Amino acid sequence: MSTISLRLPDSLHRQLRGLARQEEVSINQFVTTALVEKLSALMTDDYLAARANRADHGKFERALSRVADAPTEEHDKL
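The structure corresponding to this sequence follows.
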């Protein structure tokens, strides 16, 4: 496990301490969880962008052409 030293404005530290207390976790656990959530969001964005770049429009159209032509069900309508 690694240790980092982080300088925070007093107001941010007070908010962090209050939120961690509210969640009944340590400040370390709260910050770790917040960091994991942010990293996950950024990595997901990169993953989806990479997948989109590999997309084959022709394959998509062929797959769509095999879908039965049926009326939209009521619960699927906007």
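The chain has a mean pLDDT of 94.
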